[in-house]
Amino acid sequence: MSQPFVPDKSGRDHRLDVVRGLALLDIFINHVPGNPIERYTSRNFGFSDAAEAFVLMSGIAVALAYSGGFFKRDHLKAVGRILKRARTLYLVHIAIMSLALVIVGTGLYVFGVETIAKNVNFTRFQTDTVEALIGIPLLGYQLGYFNILPLYVVLLFAAIGYLYVGVRSVWAMLAIAFGIWGFAHLTGINFPNWPGKWGWFFNPLGWQLVFAFGLAIGLSVKTGRAFVPFSRVLYALALAFVIWSGFWVKMKMGAVPGLSTLPDLFADTDKGALAFLRLVHVLALAYVIVHTRFIGWLLSTLVFRPIALVGRNGLAVFASGSVMAIFLQVLFEAWPVGDMVKVAFITAGLAIQFLIALYFDRRKTAAKAVPATPAGGLAPARNTTRQPSEVAAS
């Protein structure tokens, strides 16, 4: 069995980068519905999909990057760094939402692309323009496929409280997260979508639970122990569940018998508030990946280096992928094409995301270089090197 998550001297475990990169590329493919490659993405082989994996790994990254200040009782500095990251995500979301509105609006008014406009909730911008303009900065108005970053912003705020509790007791933190998750399922409470009469697609009160599990894993790594030690029995159960889940979803067998007899929070299979089966599946899958030596070796090979590069630059890749995906949705409705052309466009989009990741990776490398003191005795340039913990949250 492989070693559990252990970061190297740069503060990263490249296996985590690879899995995060795969999740980001998976999200991009799924955000262009109707393309042939979509049939081979993770959501067709289990109850959870790339979204759960992305949020789980985000929790791990946040714990690795920001928990140090909580362990040292330097809370103000730690909270300041988390809020700075939340601000960055917020601004990126506003930017890509604005671009998406321009793209969909152009598609609608110039090329008559009505189906996409309706499917992604652009029509609300038409009918309630002023309210929508107010709702964008408040994160209440969200276009379809542009609702992950608002969730992440909220989860970063939640991370402040969770890390404060988690550095003292991981299990107390998870108990709180389970309580909130159960309350969200049983009551249906959600963040308001405004303008509109429904809630967020990704209900933060439900999704905070998988994020909290990520925090728990990251905190365990910080303290040099495994969150859940290896057990042959547990590994066999997790592997069996992953295989059964893949078979069940692939065969399109519908609702799982027996769930209807359980309390609502277990019977619910909806993605919005993080259904129980989706949670169990992503945790089981993570356990299998971490403890299967062959998978660990495979993810460390040269073949997956480009995917690791994508994972190391997650925000830039996700933002660019979101904009490209909505552009391709509009393009394919305005210009109906065959499957081969769609595959070509998707492949080009994946290549562009790799080039974007390469660009930002080289920028990080350049930022680590500290210029030598000039001969004239001037003071050296400011050290812009980022700490390993900051790199881990990229």
Structure commentary:
The chain is an all-alpha fold. Helix content is 66%, strand content 0%. The protein has 17 helices and no strands. Helix 2 runs parallel beside helix 7, helix 3 runs parallel beside helix 15 and helix 7 packs across helix 8. The longest helix is centred in the N-terminal third of the chain and has 37 residues. The protein is globular, with a radius of gyration of 22 Å. It starts with 13 loop residues before the first helix and ends with a helix. The C terminus is likely disordered.
Number of helices: 17
Helix coverage percent? 55-70%
Oligomer: single chain
Largest sheet: none
Gyration radius from CA atoms, angstroms: 22 Å
Unreliable runs, pLDDT <50, ≥5 residues?
379-385, 387-392
Order of helices and strands: HHHHHHHHHHHHHHHHH
Given the helix and strand composition, which structural class is it?
mainly alpha
Task: Give the terminus-to-terminus CA distance.
Answer: 28 Å
Number of strands: 0
Strand fraction: under 5%
Query: Shape, please?
Result: globular
Averaging pLDDT over every residue, what do you get? 89
Outline the fold blueprint.
Blueprint: H1 14-30, H2 50-71, H3 75-111, H4 114-119, H5 123-127, H6 129-135, H7 148-166, H8 170-187, H9 204-222, H10 232-250, H11 264-267, H12 276-290, H13 293-299, H14 305-312, H15 314-334, H16 339-368, H17 388-392
Helix pairs in contact: 1-2, 1-14, 1-15, 2-3, 2-7, 2-9, 3-7, 3-15, 7-8, 7-9, 8-9, 10-12, 14-16, 15-16
Descriptive labels:
394 residues; mainly alpha; 17 helices; disordered C terminus
